[in-house]
Write a structure and sequence with these properties.
five-stranded mixed β-sheet, seven-stranded mixed β-sheet, membrane, 22 strands, alpha/beta, globular
């Protein structure tokens, strides 16, 4: 048995994982990163539109700060997020953007003077201040009051991933590629590392670390059509779930992006709409103002996706061999803008659709895109149930997104979360020794080896690819944008049947080394358990909140459901998770639950909301008129950060940005 020891073990080499690894290495800790693929091919590279940070450089971002970003994030989450975490995030986002610039990210920059932009389908001229010349630019994104999404054309994730990976290379951080973690090594109280399989040789290895960080991304590929890379199958979440100890949080919170191309489901960035693109129906009618007259195409993602689906249900979709779709029109932006700021979108349209988006409308419809749920962690990134187990990025439920993520907050979370949690990981490694009974390693290794042996020499008859496709179609059909009790019950029942069938998988290829069929056979039962946490959580939550939209329970019910779903798996023979709930304390919130700003305000109020609002008013009154926004925030809801991240952010003052529209 091969055992590899380290201080900080990171599973996943996307932006979040690499940023944690860098934080560990900066403290002189031995660090190892495991990855299914070469780091620069991680799914982080697919992020197009940008990263939110309240720099306030551009005229359209004037007056932006951490307070506004925090409020947008909380409202976007439909009050499902951890407000302490949202504060930590909003405070550190500008620091992360500037750090990335120092590491070589070529952020799109401001040019002083007049420039044309499209706002609400009209071309207007805005004037950028001379003092802002050369500073990092920002574009508009859905659900935000200010333009704060920093970008590098529409290849932001690509730029960030290359810069951060190059930094990791510079620091000599080893990335073990083509390695898949399949089991966590733990004793019920402390996580000690993982058992991983080499996808090339089939060798099983034990990686032992003081701290283990799961940064494997989301679980989009439990759905049939997703904007996610094919590696985003929820195995990181399954690692925690299979311990029977660590909990997953809010797994039913699954986001559908409004504008994935039909039929392949590849994303066209929210930057298309942020830059002024429009959504049209089969008649060419711009329909979003009919539903959301204020925010229109730039309502929050969950809202736009539902409005699009509602419009297609009315027969306003464009018929196609792949089902109805709608149109995304970016032709009004002009060819120069498309070829400069949306060049990846242009290439996707040319290569996959055979159209020129500078003159042709793009066929789009909502498609599974993001997982708000994940491994439940506290503000420091650690599992409350399993010491030494950390998580970050889309693999985690930190929980800054609640039940809906704002565009641009995901890419930001990878590096901001990695920056913050990375410091706590390093703290943990410095404060704790590495103590493990090797029998725990042997037992975990033997169990996984037995699973592999059974697949290779057993007499199973089930086809793993058939089971996987059936799972994906169940999730797509019954656990989608709109949900209801009968369909969710059907999903749970059929997924249980598939989980039973997965215990009888048979392989045609019996090789122990490079064997894609064996890889699928190991993954699919784990994916099914993850899918069941999503379906069971959705079935149990009898309300609508953010991306979780129940047609039979259309109200957001703060009175009964202002909580976080926690899922654990009882044992290896169980067919469904155990669900528990973690209450959100309104009396500790900086921003108590209120009207989100979309549609009718039909929320059922929490009994503590009025009391908390009165308490906040009293706190502010006692502070007096001389208190600044920092004093007010600290008095209402203080939050903690590592000392090096506490200093205030600096911005151009509003008075120095004298400009406007012409």
């Amino acid at each position: 048995m091969k055992i590899i020891y380290t201080d900080s073990l990171v599973v996943g080499a996307g932006l979040a994982g690499l940023r944690v690894a860098i934080a560990s290495k900066e403290r002189g800790l031995d660090t190892v990163v495991l990855s299914l693929i070469p780091a620069k091919r991680s799914h982080s590279a697919a992020a197009q539109g940008g990263m939110q940070a309240s720099l306030g450089n551009t005229v359209k971002g004037m007056g932006d700060d951490e307070d506004v970003h925090f409020q947008d994030t909380v409202k976007g989450s439909d009050w499902g997020c951890d407000q302490d975490v949202a504060r930590m995030f909003a405070h550190c986002a500008p620091k992360a953007v500037r750090e990335l610039a120092n590491w070589g990210v070529p952020w799109s920059r401001i040019t002083a003077g007049d420039r044309q932009v499209v706002v609400n389908a009209e071309k207007v001229t805005i004037t950028e201040a001379e003092k802002a010349h050369g500073l990092i630019n920002a574009r508009d994104f859905g659900g935000t009051k200010k333009w704060r999404t920093c970008y590098t054309a529409d290849g932001t994730g690509h730029s960030l991933l290359y810069a951060v990976d190059n930094k990791a290379i510079e620091m000599d951080i080893p990335v073990h590629e083509r390695i898949e973690a399949l089991s966590l090594i733990h004793d019920g109280k402390r996580c000690h590392g993982v058992i991983a399989r080499c996808l090339i040789t089939g060798e099983l290895r034990a990686y032992i670390g003081k701290a283990t960080t799961i940064a494997t991304g989301g679980y989009g590929r439990i759905y049939e059509v997703s904007t996610n890379a094919i590696i985003c199958e929820g195995i990181g979440q399954a690692l925690a779930l299979d311990t029977g100890v660590a909990a997953l949080g809010n797994m039913e919170a699954v986001q559908f992006h409004p504008t994935a191309i039909v039929p392949v489901g590849i994303l066209t960035t929210e930057g298309c709409r942020g830059d002024g693109g429009l959504l049209r129906d089969k008649d060419g009618h711009r329909f979003m103002p009919d539903y959301e007259p204020e925010k229109k195409e730039l309502a929050s993602r969950d809202v736009v996706s539902r409005r699009m689906t509602e419009h297609m249900r009315k027969g306003k979709g464009v018929d196609s061999p792949y089902g109805p779709h709608l149109w995304l029109d970016i032709t009004l932006l002009g060819r120069k803008h498309v070829e400069t700021n949306l060049r990846e979108v242009k290439e996707i349209c040319e290569n996959f659709l055979g159209i020129d988006p500078a003159k042709d409308w793009i066929p789009v419809r909502p498609t599974q895109h993001y997982s708000m749920g994940g491994i439940r962690i506290n503000a420091t990134g650690e599992s409350p149930q399993l010491a030494g187990l950390f998580s970050v990025g889309e693999a985690a439920c930190w929980d800054m997104h609640g039940f809906n993520r704002l565009g641009g907050n995901s890419l930001a979370e990878t590096v901001v979360g990695g920056m913050i949690i990375g410091k706590y990981v390093a703290d943990f490694c410095e404060k704790n020794t590495l103590e493990i009974n090797t029998q725990v390693i042997d037992d975990t290794m033997s169990k996984l080896q037995g699973e592999i042996d059974e697949l290779l020499v057993g007499e199973g008859t089930e086809n793993v690819f058939d089971i996987k496709l059936a799972m994906q179609r169940i999730m797509m059909d019954y656990v989608g944008i709109f949900r209801n009790g009968p369909e969710l019950e059907k999903a749970v029942s059929e997924l249980k049947d598939l989980l039973k069938r997965s215990k009888n998988i048979g392989l045609k290829c019996k090789k122990r080394h490079a064997n894609p069929e064996l890889v699928e056979a190991l993954r699919v039962p784990r994916m099914l358990r993850v899918a069941l946490t999503v379906a069971c959580g959705a079935n149990a939550r009898t309300e609508s909140r953010g991306a979780h939209a129940r047609e039979d329970y259309p109200q957001r019910n703060d009175k009964e459901w202002l909580n976080r779903t926690l899922s654990t798996w009882p044992d290896e023979n169980a067919l469904e998770p155990e669900l528990h709930y973690e209450q959100l304390d309104v009396m500790k919130m900086e921003l108590p639950p209120g009207y989100r700003g979309y549609g009718n305000d039909n929320a059922v109020a929490h009994p503590d909301t009025a009391a908390r609002e009165a308490q906040i008013a009293d706190i502010l009154a006692k502070l007096g008129d001389d208190a600044d926004r920092f004093d007010k925030q600290a008095a209402i809801m203080p939050f903690e950060l590592p000392e090096t991240l506490r200093p205030r952010n600096e911005r151009l003052s509003d008075t120095s940005l004298v400009s406007g529209e012409k």
